[in-house]
Amino acid sequence: MRLTVLGDDPGVKIESYRERYKVFLDGIEVKNCFTSDDEKGEVIIAMTNDQGRMQAEGGKVKRQTLYGKVQMERIQ
């Protein structure tokens, strides 16, 4: 399944203020995740600097795609 908060992504749209998920890539929790796809094995995250702050370019948050074993866990 592919979950996303991005408007231009073909995944199942979730409303981050109503639904929350923990996303794991190769067993490690991923923060600042926009999209996760456990079938393709990819996550799209916000790029951060050394202080953990999101980076922007041209008024948009920079994104990075990572690959591996993806697991999603809904937070109740």
Tell me the layout of helices and strands.
Layout: E1 2-4, E2 12-13, E3 20-25, E4 28-30, E5 33-37, E6 42-46, E7 56-57, E8 60-61, E9 63-67, E10 70-75
Give the helix proportion (percent range).
Answer: under 10%
Strand percent estimate: over 45%
Please count the helical segments: 0
Helix/strand/pairing class, anyone? mainly beta
What best-fitting shape do the alpha-carbon axes yield? globular
Number of domains: 1
- H/E element sequence: EEEEEEEEEE
What is the terminal separation in angstroms? 19 Å
Describe the structure.
The structure is a single chain. The chain has one domain. It contains no helices and 10 strands. The chain has strands spanning 2-4, 12-13, 20-25, 28-30, 33-37, 42-46, 56-57, 60-61, 63-67, 70-75. Strand 7 (56-57) and strand 8 form a beta hairpin.
In short:
Helices cover 0% and strands 51% of the residues. With 76 residues, the protein is mainly β.
